[in-house]
Amino acid sequence: MTTVALKHLSAADPVMRRLIREIGPCRLEHEPWRSPFQSLVQAVAHQQLHATAAGNILARFKQLFPRRRFPKPEDLAGVTDAQLRACGFSFAKIRAIRDIAEKTRSGVVPTPRQIVKLSDDEIIARLTEVRGVGRWTVEMLLIFQLGRKDVLPADDFGVRNGFRIAYKKREMPKPKVLLQFGKRWRPHATTAAWYLWRAADAAKKKE
After folding, report:
1. What SS3 state is found at 173?
2. Widest CA span of the chain, in angstroms?
3. Mind telling me the catalytic residues?
4. Chain region(s) in the chain for CATH 1.10.340.30
5. Which fold has domain 36-144?
6. pLDDT (tens digit per residue) in 22-36
7. pTM assigned to the model
8. 9-127-159 Cα angle (round to 5)
9. Distances (CA, A) of 92 to 44, 89, 132
10. Among 34, 30, 143, 36, which Cα is nearest to 100's?
């Protein structure tokens, strides 16, 4: 993320200025080589799970397709629900993954070339049509695949908890409150979210 974002956040918000000073430059990286299909499958795998557990499930999933770095949507037809269940996916996540594959083939989920031409709101509207894919899942794709600069995932536990800690609040902020407060961070809300994640991580380490 650019110096422009850090300057904007520092000028707009004294707490962000302090976080930037304490944490240092933003090291958020995105992975533009991932397809929307891969991003959605990986996001579904991570839903309500620790990153390590989700990583293990995805590793077993990829082993089902030894000739691919990551399977294509059409490859899902060649594996059974039992095989996916053995990887560690719940039945709800299996249904979601199969729907991601089906909607990728039908064109609801855009191709890598198509998605970069769409606005954040257009991407959210398209992808939340997919089973098991909510706004948070799409926001993770916007941040970590597409590198969009103004995404504030207000439903994210880590972001909300980081805000509570950094701004010395007694209770977790409601998403609407966080979105309203976050207007001062725009158009660099993604960088602000990264610093809130780091604030939550730092508090965990102290504990």
Report:
1. coil
2. 54
3. 156
4. 36-144
5. Endonuclease III; domain 1 (1.10.340)
6. 999 999 988 888 899
7. 0.87
8. 30
9. 10, 8, 8
10. 36
